[in-house]
Amino acid sequence: MKKRIPFFAGNWKMNKGPSETERFVKELATAIVGDEAVFGAVKANEIEIGVFPPFVSLERAKSAIESANALISLGAQNMHWEDSGAFTGEVSGTMIKETGCQYVILGHSERRHIFGETDDMIEMKMRKAIALGIKPVLCVGETLEERDKGMTESVVEGQLKEAFKALGTPQTFEIGIVIAYEPVWAIGTGRKASDEDAQRVCAFIRSFLESNFDSHVAQAVRILYGGSVKPDNAMGLMSQQDIDGALIGGASLDVSSFIGIIKNGM
Ligand code: PEP
C-alpha cells in the first residue's frame, strides 16, 4: 500500500473550449458520483482526479465542478511569472488563481521545446506559483537523443536543480508540489516508457529530493509518470513503488478512457 494519494491528472493541451469543457466535466462528475463502489475512494480522499483545460475554459470547468458537487481538482497548463504587465498573449498566476485553479503544469515539454521555455523561466514560474499558493506540477524528462546517449538521469537532475534552485528549504514542499516524469519521446507517440524504466527514473527523482531536501520531502512528494498512458497500460505503471499517478494527455480527452485509466490504475 502506497502512502501517497494517487493523482490522475488530465492535460487537455489545446483541446476543448468552454462548452465542450462543461459537457466533459458533467459526464466525468456523473461517472464519479454515480459509481460509489469504484469512486468512493475519491470521496474518501484516497484518490485525486484533476483536469487541466485551456485558460478560456477554466471558469466553465470550475462552475461545472461546483454544480455537480464533484471532487475534481482544477489546474492550468501554464502561467506567467509576473502578476500583470506588457506580456501580450500571456496569463498570470494571479489570474488562474482567481479562476479557481489549485494546480498549474510548469515546464511541460511542449512549452520547453515548441515555445522555447528555458529552465530560468520555469524556475521563475515555480517561485511565483508557490508564492501564490498554486501547486506546481513540474514536468521533467529527456529527449530520445538524450536517452540514447544514456543521459536520462543527468538531464532530469539538471532540470530539477534549475527548477528548485531558489527554493532551498523542505518547507517549500508543504504546498504539495507534484513532479511529473515525462520522457519527451513518449508524449503523444503511443510509445510509453517501460514500467521498469519509468520506475527507475521516478525513484531517481525521489532520491534527488532526499539528497537535496530531506527524507520527509522525498516520501511525501507525488511523482507522476506521463507519456502515452492508456487504460491498458495504467495498471503496470501504477503498481510501481515510486509512481504515484499519471499525467495523461490524449487519453484524458475522452471520459471513458480517462475513467478506464483511473479504474485500472487505482
Ligand atoms: C502530456 O501531454 O503530458 C502527455 C503525457 O501526453 P500523452 O498522454 O498524450 O502522451
From TrEMBL:
Subcellular location: Cytoplasm
EC number of this enzyme: 5.3.1.1
Keywords: Cytoplasm, Gluconeogenesis, Glycolysis, Isomerase
Cellular compartments per GO CC: cytosol
Free-text function comment from the UniProt entry: Involved in the gluconeogenesis. Catalyzes stereospecifically the conversion of dihydroxyacetone phosphate (DHAP) to D-glyceraldehyde-3-phosphate (G3P).
Subunit structure: Homodimer.
Family, as annotated: Belongs to the triosephosphate isomerase family.
Name of the molecule in the record: Triosephosphate isomerase
Gene transcribed to yield this protein: tpiA
